[in-house]
Design goal:
Blueprint (H helix, E strand, L loop, with lengths): L9 H12 L3 H14 L4 E7 L5 E6 L9 H4 L26 H7 L2 E7 L6 E7 L2 E8 L4 E7 L6 H5 L4 H18 L4 E6 L2 E6 L18 H12 L1 H5 L2 E7 L2 E7 L13 E4 L2 E3 L2 H11 L11 E6 L5 E2 L10 E2 L2 H16 L85 E3 L3 E6 L2 E6 H17 L6 E11 L2 H17 L2 E6 L2 E8 L7 H18 L5 H13 L9 H11 L15 E5 H7 L4
Parallel strand pairs: 1-7, 11-13
Antiparallel strand pairs: 1-2, 2-6, 3-4, 3-6, 4-5, 7-8, 9-10, 10-13, 11-12, 14-15, 16-17, 17-18, 18-22, 19-21, 20-21
Bound molecules: adenosine-5'-diphosphate and magnesium ion.
The site of magnesium ion has 5 residues, from helix 2.
Length: about 625
Amino acid sequence: MTRSIRRLAPETASRIAAGEVIERPLSALKEILENALDAGARSIAVQVERSLDHAFQVADDGTGIAAGDLELALERHATSKIATLEDLDRLGSLGFRGEALPSIAAVSRLRITSRRREADGASFVLVEGGRAVERGASARAPGTTVEVADLFFNTPARRKFLHSPAGELRAALRLLECYALAYPEVGFRMTVDGRERLSWPALPVSGLAPEDHGGAPGLHDYRERASALWGARHAAQLLDALGERDGMRIEALLGLPEHARATREGQVFIVNRRWIQSPPLSQALRRAYGNLLPGGRFPASTLWLTVPPARLDVNVHPTKREVRFADESAVFTLVAGACAKSLAHIHPPLTVVRGGAATEPRWADRVQERAGEQPYLRLGSLRPEPPGLASPGGGPAGPGVSSPGAGILAGDRSEPEAAGAGPREPELWQLHRTYILAPVRGGLVIVDQHAAHERILYEDARARLEGARGSAQQLLFPAVIDLSRSQFDLVLELGQWLNQLGWDLAPLGPPSVVIHGVPSDLTRENPGRFLQDLLDEVSESTARESDTDVAEIVARSYACHAAIKAGDPLSQPEMRALIDRLFATSRPHGDPHGRVTYVRLDLDELNKRFGRT
Ligand SMILES: Nc1ncnc2c1ncn2[C@@H]1O[C@H](COP(=O)(O)OP(=O)(O)O)[C@@H](O)[C@H]1O
Ligand SMILES: [Mg+2]
């Protein structure tokens, strides 16, 4: 075998390299658009002739390029945006690789006409397949016009694989839409063969006053832009979400569950004003919607995320469509949390049967089943049965299993319901001491015991903190515990809140506290340890979250640490109480962090899977 290694001719090498940056006609438009935005344009006009690969031009009113720099701009790795690798840590522009213009120039006929504000006139250069063929003076207002014609004329292989021109144009409209969302202060216009396809005026962006978070636009501006894009009625139905943590900021406009889509097409992610694709952001968003959406539906939402540039790697791919977060899990938590909070007041479209046959569940008409065939849960009673009445020996968690939650889920011990009244309730099953399986009409509900309890305790805690003071369970032997100095200070600071929750505490003097009573439905056997966990969680959360809604933080921390855990065995009455109480909360489908609390398995689905159609 003979081998010979050759250096590629420069034109060949640059055409091959160009293929990475300019994968398709849309990429050329994207790069040129990003250059206009980087140049501080307030008005951008796109004109397409026939199709993107045939001819298009982008005109902006940005800074312009000096006549002497025009040809330098077309050289590979020539950029005005960064000088050293470290500059990437402070990146404020969309471009930085200095590859776009030379790449486009290598595979098209490209003309750039530009004028800086202070220059007397404009100049232009015309490049064909990477070679400058003409240059000279021209007339133009300050700004830049880039014209691209005959894309891929000299790379026949690429030409063969082009998408349909109509599809490419649709993608171009979406591209403009996404950048319009990222830059509400910029006006966009696009015409195709002389016909106007879109026109969005520049908005006087409120947040651009430097005192508002560093001169960036805010939700108000985004909403206004959304209204220009999608119509006022649609925009009015979007929900605001806002959150901040560790120098990161999330703003979002969330689509209602009924506007969810079958693909992720309705999702726009903008990170540091860059339109990107991001599976983690998509997952965080999905997490926030929890049970509000069935599987296979994707929320239509726009997210604007701001992170410190040094915590973001934008140099993952030549097209710059992907980024990497240094703090991915923190980003996830921030996004999922902020969005879940905003969605919290929406009820899921599916509700488990309440109160027996008299009230039909909302999904009843979706379930094909013969009446009376399926047992269903009798929900709607807040009151759990006392342990003694439980059907014994049933599920895997039968009697005799010692249970840390025993009797405690059954917070209220009023009189038992008359035995034998009403339909016999179906058995509940505990799976791997983590999930509770509950038959409902038309299928099965699988409840995450920890998440469900967290939701219950969270709402309980909120109610107590909002005034309905919680009852305390007095300890027979008051416990003296030693706290750290900051925990002790926090007890003093939170005194009122802790009291509302049902704690009966007496500070002895740093660092000791006497616990006389604990919240009445506390499941944890070591109240001192629990108090410390609670204090630590509160202090961590208040340090992390900028909106210091103390009641919210206390409620969440309380719920999180007081809830039964995966691995805790539960008896029948405990499971029953847990489910009853879960579905009596205002938002049974998600825990306070936005994780789902239960999953439904439909009988139709099972039948289908077993071939019983
Ligand atoms: N529309 C424009 N307005 C002003 N300057 C521009 C414009 N387009 C390109 N340039 C200049 O040309 C340079 C090279 O552009 P490009 O090849 O896209 O690389 P990059 O954007 O990564 O710097 C830019 O750094 C910028 O200085
Ligand atoms: Mg660029």
